[in-house]
Amino acid sequence: MELCIDIQELSVSYNGQNILKNINLRIEGPGIYFIIGPNGSGKSTLLRALANLIPFEGKIKICNKDVREFRRKELAQVLGYVWQNPLYGFFEETVEREIQFILKNIKKSLDKVRTISQEFNIEHLLSRSPFYLSGGEAKRVSIASVVVADQNILLLDEPESAMDLDGIKNILNFIHQKADEKLIIIATHNILIAKKLSKKIRKIVFIKDGKIFSVGDASLLDNDQLLEEISVPSLNWWLK
Amino acid sequence: MTLLDFVRIQRKNTIIHRIPIPVKILPFVYTILVPFICFLRQYQLISLALIMFTLSVLFIYPLKEIRYIVSIYIAYLSLGVIVLGTHIIFGGYLLETVQRLLYILTIGFSFLFFLSTTKISDLERFLKKIHFPEKIINYLITAYNLLPSVYFELEEISRAQMARGLELNRNPITKVRRSLAIFIPFLFVTLLRSQQLDESFKARGRD
Lengths: 240, 207
Prior knowledge:
The complex is a heterodimer.
Chain A: E1 4-14, E2 17-28, E3 31-36, H1 43-50, E4 57-62, E5 65-66, H2 72-78, E6 79-82, H3 95-105, H4 112-119, H5 135-147, E7 153-157, H6 165-178, E8 183-188, H7 191-196, E9 201-208, E10 211-216, H8 224-229, H9 235-239
Parallel strand pairs in A: 3-8, 3-9, 6-7, 7-8
Antiparallel strand pairs in A: 1-2, 1-4, 4-5, 9-10
Helix pairs in contact in A: 3-5
Chain B: H1 3-10, H2 21-24, H3 26-37, H4 41-60, H5 66-90, H6 94-116, H7 120-129, H8 134-163, H9 172-203
Helix pairs in contact in B: 3-4, 3-6, 4-6, 5-6, 7-8, 8-9
C-alpha cells in the first residue's frame, strides 16, 4: 500500500478565526515526520484535519484518495489518530474494552489486545476503569486503543505528554520500531523527543500562526535561531 | 447518596447481582404498567407500596446498603414535603396526590434498583439479545459509563476553586452566586469532553 499524504491549500477557520492558512505539503513513504510549533500554532488542528475530524477547506489526500471520501471504518483502518487529552476520549467500562473498541468497529479479531497491552506495558490495567488511571497510564492506554488496529499511517498529538521516563521509553521504542514500515506524524513542541528520534526523521515541518514556517530534515533541530523565531526552546536553551 | 456510591454498588457481586436481567427489570416494568393493570386505586397503592417495601428489604439485607437506602428515602421525603405543600396550597384530592407521588417514587426506585445491581456489560448483552437498536445501546452505555467521570470532574473543579478560596456558605443567595464558579467551568469541561469524545469515536471508526 502506498504511504502518502498530500495536502493542498488547506485552510481551517473556527469562530471567524483562521487557524490554518493555505497549507501545502506532501509527505511520502515510511518514516517519522515531525510537526513542530509553539502552543496555538495549529499543530493539533492540522492533525485533526488530516483525520477528517473537523471541517476544512482545500484538499487532503490519504493514499491518493480524498480523505472525505473514506467511510469512518475505512479511515480507521488506514490512519490512526491519537488525540492529545486521553481521558476525554474514554467511555468504556474497562481498559480492555476501550482497546477492543476500534477492533469491533473495523471488525477485526480481538486477539491483538493482549499483544498490544504487553507492548505498552498496560496488561495489569486491562480490568480497571479507564477513568481512574494516572496521566501516563491513560496516555499509554489511549495510544494502544488506536494503534492496536495496526494502521499504516499514525498521527500522534504530543504522545510524550504526561509520561514518566518508562512511559516515554515505551512510546519511543514503539515509534522507533514502526518507523521503517509506517508513516508516523508527530505533533509536538518538545524538541527533545524529536532529537531522540532524529535518526528516523524524514521531514520536519515548523509551523507558526497557522502557516508553514520552514520544512527540512533533522538538521533543523540544531538551528537555534530558527527555533527561537518560532518560540520553541532549543536543546542549547535547555542546557544553558 | 452520590453517583460514586451508585457505581460502587453496581460493582458488587451479590446474589441480587446474579439474578437474570429480565427478572430484575420486572418491578420497573410492572410499576410502569400498574395504572393499566389495576383499575382500583387501593390495589394500585398496595402493589406500589409492596414493591417499595420489597426493594428496600433487598437493599438492606442482601446488598447491605442501609446508608444508601436512607439517603434515597430522605430524598423522597423532601420531594414528598414539596408535593404535599403544593397540595395544601392548591387543594385537590389527597389520595390522588399520594398515589401519584408513590407512583413516581416507585418508578425511580425500581429503576435505581435495576441499574445498581446490573453490570453495564450484562445490560449491553441483554439489549443486543432483544435486538434493541445498536445506536441507542451505544448512547446509553456511553452516557452511563461517563457518569462517574463527570462526577469526579465536578469534585476536582470544586476542590480547585476551594483551593483558591471559594467558600460555599449557608446563605442561599451567596451559595447560588458562588456555585457559578464551579458550574461554569464544569459546563465548559463537559462541552469540551463531549467534543473530544466525538473525535475519539470517529478516530476509532465509529460514525
